[in-house]
């Protein structure tokens, strides 16, 4: 009953926020296939088949309902609901889903391997440039080292859920697996991209190439797991609905090991969306029953909304406990500007660019002939590394894989201002999760891995309603024993923590939410979103953190909700925390030996004087040369690094503390304004002391950002403004321009006379298109204002309105008094005005009645009626 209630609630939520309804229904029917087909035929549906591997769930298509409409067909829904065998149904709504690719990033650079045992006759697609002996080698993902151990992804099946893949592509052909492929958009077996209406449908092919492009293919790539079987689900090149997503994520779940999803809700800093009821069910079933009970592995790109102040916690896909959410970094360990902050990101992979000694190669019609970067690339690399790990141990469960990732990921050179060591000794960051994936460490861990104990779920409910005051922080403390009185729910060691909140608020973007564990680990579950003006608040929204992994569940959990008004608003309507649930997932038994804390304090020890001879155990930071006592200052030589004090004594540490850097095992002091660094000079900082900001490009710390820079508060960095900006508030928003340029919108451009635009490549003013009075660039789509005799139609100037649009009357307050073309109501084929009653013609299956397009239908007794009369009655 709980599941059915959740499905019904999900349906109501979708209806309340509906944009475009389709003529597809998802339906759960209790009965055999004959009963299903009987119900479909009775109500004029076509049974399109079971939805993926979801038993008893079917996709029905109603041909008498318009394929796209702004109005739901409540009559059909109400009639079918009366069937006793129908347990649940939902008319489908089109969802906006975006590929997580950053077009402003540099093209992926292909590189030749320096590993003598990994002999390929092609440059590597993976960023595995430096050898362990290289002087400036910085934290490779150790992919080639995993290859040298004999792991190539052989026998592992990966499917890319995207806009299709080119199955005949020379990089993919020999690894292509038709059993892991399907065209959900076209309902056939061929997942090849459709280039006829969108030339950009190469994204899925590129992601597939990163995972499993074949070795020695005489072209330009090799995939991370170059012997894995690769398939593709074409599902983004059409209307994406809950059915489409669920069918894709549950397709042949006993055959496919890894699903790669490099897409999600719009990364616009406004959207708050997660999986629909069917998709959520597909994810739950996948981890419970997929791979014959070991659990499907869902790899998700964390998000590319950093430039818009977005936060991954507002994406219910990448913040699900069932997905492996992957973040991005550059080769130099810096933060890409599109990166979002997350408490749900598990680990990080490279996103291309920013490396030396690379060979740039471009081939026409090959995977590398198109630009790809962003978290799409990182998620694909991560899927390849996970395939190598399954090659080492195919019996790993979905939770085993997450544990291995947490235990083996490396912070290394990744630059972030918020690295912290949690109560279990793991370094973790809101930008990078537990660090950079390490393929060799993962396969080594997999070789000896023992399955983790069963997952328990401890829920702490809070019935108290609390007021959130503007400009202040609401602090609430929740104490738990980890459900110690309930053996089947008892959690001692934490894995995932979910905070489920219902909050009412007049401006959602002004809220930030933080959770502190009993061990003191702070998770910023939500940051302020400057663009989010929604008044809807949060309704049972789930914020998830992995940052407490391995900690003790029992103790006080502290939730802080801060309201920071960013603009004028009605402060008389106070925010309200209406409902809260704290859900702790983990185990009752220790899953493996305790993780040693990685950073040791540099304080003086309190042990007594040394004895002349010592035969006891050495400190873990001592090397194999032994020790002369039990403490870290008694080591003969150090395993990792040492701090040297003024009295010529030294102390072994696992990592250099803040304000120091490692130089041939010795920790040396950074420049005074640096908190971390790669050398002692002022231009070798990687993070800054409080009160200072790291300057992008110079690696110096400064108290105030200079001209051509703006302060990125989240990263505590002075970042460069865009070209020609003298001052700015973000990369793309200029407030003051350099000489000989002027502010046009938010951009600084060379000044040109009316009717001309500045061509940046040639450095000259050129005439606008003849349809433009003024413009920002070449072509009719770049018009700012239309020339006399032309009308503006969705950001382009036309001589007359297209079908489905109508011309407005001149209005001096709009478009400088010129007429513009506006879209007709969705029910009209053509129209003379904006409303449903202004139609002049209708689409097939509809009739025009007094300016309104109505559905042609027949009553049960055979008498004709008008659908709009029903709508009026229903209202």
UniProtKB/TrEMBL annotation:
The keyword Glycoprotein applies. The active site is at 162 (charge relay system), 203 (charge relay system), 376 (charge relay system). PROSITE patterns: P_HOMO_B, SUBTILASE, SUBTILASE_ASP, SUBTILASE_HIS. The keyword NAD does not apply. Residues 184-199 have a biased composition (Polar residues). It holds the Pfam family GF_recep_IV. Residues 169-199 are annotated as: Disordered. Residues 1-18 form the signal peptide. GO terms for molecular function: serine-type endopeptidase activity. InterPro entries: EGF, Furin_repeat, Galactose-bd-like_sf, GF_recep_IV, Growth_fac_rcpt_cys_sf, Kexin/furin, P_dom, Peptidase_S8/S53_dom. GO terms for biological process: peptide hormone processing. GO terms for cellular component: Golgi membrane; trans-Golgi network. Residues 451-590 form the P/Homo B domain. Keywords: Cleavage on pair of basic residues, Disulfide bond, Glycoprotein, Hydrolase, Protease, Serine protease, Signal, Zymogen. Probably involved in the processing of hormone and other protein precursors at sites comprised of pairs of basic amino acid residues. PANTHER family: PROPROTEIN CONVERTASE SUBTILISIN/KEXIN-RELATED, PROPROTEIN CONVERTASE SUBTILISIN_KEXIN TYPE 5. Belongs to the peptidase S8 family. Furin subfamily. This is SPC3.
């Amino acid at each position: 009953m709980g599941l059915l209630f959740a499905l019904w609630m999900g349906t109501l939520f979708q209806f309340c926020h509906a944009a475009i309804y389709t003529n597809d229904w998802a339906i759960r029917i209790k009965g055999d296939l004959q009963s299903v087909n009987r119900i479909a035929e009775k109500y004029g549906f076509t049974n399109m088949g079971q939805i993926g591997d979801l038993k008893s769930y079917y996709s029905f298509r109603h041909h008498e309902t318009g394929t796209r409409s702004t109005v739901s067909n409540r009559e059909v829904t109400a009639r079918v609901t009366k069937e006793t065998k129908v347990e649940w149904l939902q008319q489908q709504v089109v969802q906006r889903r975006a590929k997580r690719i950053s077009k402003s990033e540099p093209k992926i650079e292909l590189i030749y391997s320096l590993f003598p045992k990994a002999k390929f006759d092609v440059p590597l697609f993976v960023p595995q440039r430096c050898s362990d002996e290289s002087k400036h080698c910085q934290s490779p993902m150790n992919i080639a080292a995993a290859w040298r151990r004999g792991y190539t992804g052989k026998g592992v099946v990966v499917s890319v859920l995207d806009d299709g893949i080119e199955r005949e592509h020379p990089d993919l052909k020999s690894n292509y697996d038709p059993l892991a492929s399907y065209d959900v958009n076209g309902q056939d077996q061929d997942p090849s991209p459709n280039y006829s209406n969108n030339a950009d449908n190469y994204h899925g092919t590129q992601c597939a190439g990163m995972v499993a492009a074949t070795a020695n293919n005489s072209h330009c790539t090799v995939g991370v797991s170059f012997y894995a079987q690769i398939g593709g689900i074409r599902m983004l090149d059409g209307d994406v609905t809950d059915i489409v997503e669920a069918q894709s994520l549950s397709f042949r779940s006993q055959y496919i090991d890894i699903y790669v999803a490099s897409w999600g809700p719009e990364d616009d800093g406004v959207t708050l969306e997660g999986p629909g009821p069917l998709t959520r069910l597909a994810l739950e079933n996948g981890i419970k029953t997929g791979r014959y009970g070991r659990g499907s592995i869902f790899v998700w790109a964390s998000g590319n909304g950093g430039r818009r102040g977005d936060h991954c916690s507002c994406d219910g896909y990448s913040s699900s406990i069932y997905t492996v959410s992957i973040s991005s970094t550059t080769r130099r360990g810096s933060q890409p500007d599109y990166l979002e902050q997350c408490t749900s990101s598990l680990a990080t992979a490279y996103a291309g660019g920013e490396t030396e000694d690379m060979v740039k190669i471009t081939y026409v019609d090959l995977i590398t002939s198109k630009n790809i970067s962003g978290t799409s690339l990182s998620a694909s690399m991560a899927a390849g590394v996970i395939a190598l790990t399954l090659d080492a141990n195919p019996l790993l469960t979905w939770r085993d894989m997450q544990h291995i990732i947490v235990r083996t990921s490396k912070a290394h050179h990744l630059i972030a201002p918020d690295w912290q060591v949690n109560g279990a000794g793991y370094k973790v960051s809101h930008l990078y999760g537990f660090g950079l994936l390490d393929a060799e460490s993962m396969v080594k861990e997999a070789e000896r891995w023992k399955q983790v104990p069963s997952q328990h779920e401890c829920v702490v409910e809070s019935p108290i309603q609390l007021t959130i005051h503007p400009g202040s922080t609401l602090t609430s403390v929740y104490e738990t024993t980890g459900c110690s009185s309930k053996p089947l729910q008892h959690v001692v060691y934490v894995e995932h923590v979910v905070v489920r909140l219902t909050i009412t608020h007049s401006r959602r973007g002004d809220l930030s939410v933080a959770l502190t564990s009993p061990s003191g680990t702070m998770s910023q579950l939500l940051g302020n979103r400057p663009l989010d003006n929604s008044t809807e608040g949060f309704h049972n929204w789930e914020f998830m953190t992995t940052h407490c992994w391995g900690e003790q569940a029992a103790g006080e959990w502290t939730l802080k909700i801060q309201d920071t008004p960013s603009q004028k608003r009605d402060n008389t309507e106070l925010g309200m925390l209406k409902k809260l649930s704290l859900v702790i997932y983990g185990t009752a038994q220790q899953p493996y030996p305790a993780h040693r804390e990685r950073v040791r304090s540099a304080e003086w020890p309190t042990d007594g004087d040394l004895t002349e001879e010592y035969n006891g155990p050495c400190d873990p930071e001592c090397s194999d040369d032994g020790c002369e006592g039990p403490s870290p200052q008694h080591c003969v030589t150090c395993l990792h690094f040492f701090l040297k004090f003024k009295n010529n004594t030294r102390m072994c540490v696992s990592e250099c503390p803040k304000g120091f850097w490692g130089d041939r095992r010795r920790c040396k002091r950074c420049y005074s304004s640096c908190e971390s660094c790669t050398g002692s000079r002022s231009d070798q900082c990687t993070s800054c002391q409080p009160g200072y900001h790291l300057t992008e490009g110079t690696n110096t710390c400064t108290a105030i950002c200079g001209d051509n820079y703006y302060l990125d508060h989240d990263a505590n960095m002075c970042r460069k403004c865009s070209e020609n900006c003298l001052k700015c508030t973000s990369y793309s928003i200029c407030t003051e321009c350099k000489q000989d340029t002027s502010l046009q919108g938010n951009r600084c451009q060379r000044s040109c006379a009316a009717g001309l635009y500045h061509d940046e490549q040639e450095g000259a003013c050129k005439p606008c298109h003849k349809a433009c009075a003024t413009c920002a660039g070449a072509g009719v789509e770049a018009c700012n204002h239309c020339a006399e005799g032309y009308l503006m139609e969705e950001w382009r100037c036309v001589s007359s309105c297209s079908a489905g649009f109508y011309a407005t009357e001149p209005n001096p307050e709009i478009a400088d008094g010129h007429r513009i073309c506006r879209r007709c109501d969705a029910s009209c084929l053509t129209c003379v005005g904006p409303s449903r009653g202004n139609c002049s013609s209708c689409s097939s299956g509809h009739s025009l009645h007094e300016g309104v397009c109505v559905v042609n239908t027949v009553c049960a007794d055979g008498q004709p009626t008008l659908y709009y009369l029903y709508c009026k009655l229903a209202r």
